[in-house]
Structure prediction request, 107 residues.
Amino acid sequence: MRTAVEDGLLLVVRGQSAAASALAQSTLLGELVDGAQVGMLAIDAGRCVAANAYACELLGYEREELIGNRVEEPLTHRDGSLLEVEYKVIPSEVAGMFVMVGLFWPV
Prediction:
């Protein structure tokens, strides 16, 4: 038994191919990460290469505005105010690319 995501609902699909199952898992995981109430940034060489929706909300930027920009400590909001957050940075390999994954949340 395998799962798939359709219109935001988790569905059980019988007889699904391995490729379709991997796609469903990837889609589900992507939606979970994007909707998490923890800011997540993927950072390569000091620049943002990916951001989830909550990171964008906390920082006050659209995703397209964050991608390619430098990520520096301390984290600041678009208006220049200092964000009071806890954070953890984890080295990771994603799609064959080594990145630092920054997780942060308000205190």
